[in-house]
Fold:
Amino acid sequence: GGWSLAIHGGAGTIARENMSAEDDAAYRTSLQAALDAGAKVLAEGGEALDAVEAVILLLEDDPRFNAGRGAVFTWEGGHELDASIMDGRDRDAGAVAGVTNIRHPILLARKVMTDSPHVMLAGKGAETFAKEQGLETVPAEWFGTDFRREALERMKAKELSALDVDAKFG
Amino acid sequence: TVGAVALDRNGNLAAGTSTGGMTGKRWNRIGDAPVIGAGTYADNRSCAVSATGWGEYFIRVGVAKAICARMELAGDSAQAASDAVMADVKALGGDGGVIVVSNSGDAIYSFNTSGMYRGRATSEGMNEVAIY
Structure:
């Protein structure tokens, strides 16, 4: 049979008129690398789950995207990461919410799916489970970028309520 | 937010989504990404979906599951189902988009924002990335 793959890197935070040619090229290069990683898995007869994982691992490590390294800052200046994965064969699923020190939340979501009886784990409990599963942890500094930090500072300078913040600065 | 959906040579579908949430979020806000049925869903009977956007609206609409259900129960195409559900999101005031791969191999996008970083590839030779 044939195979198909689609990927996304979010809805974008740079308005088209403000995106330089260099930025545009860099985003396209990152997306192509992620697409190629997943396509390689599928072209070689690999599983859809592994293709999805291959794509997201690259994007989580790429500071241009809001996941893993490059994730946005919370109001308090930290990072809270969420991820989920689902297998269409049997609708098995795994998800994690609000983890702060897991390099690849998508791997933790998959571990929740395959190595726990649960579907979603959150916060410290999820991080404890990650440690038990031997997943890689990183210090908070791993996730931070100047671009995202400045976005938080700009937002706070406007002295908006948190509701306004969530609504207008996603 | 980042995500991927795939159909493999054995006809199996999968979906995944990962996100840092929203800038300046408080109160341990959780968006749609880890909520199965909102931001992520996969079912071999219909399709696989990963979403990005204003999570609360995707949760309220149950976006990912709704797309799969329209395809399975109403016979909608992936594009028609996705466009209808994203229109529902927009009608409520939300924005964002989805990527979908159907169990017949269609790889489509549907979004109501000006930009969505995206790409798709198939065994038929499609290979593209796009931003706007």
Observations:
- Chain A has a mean pLDDT of 92.
- The CA atoms of residues 27 and 64 of chain A lie 7 Å apart.
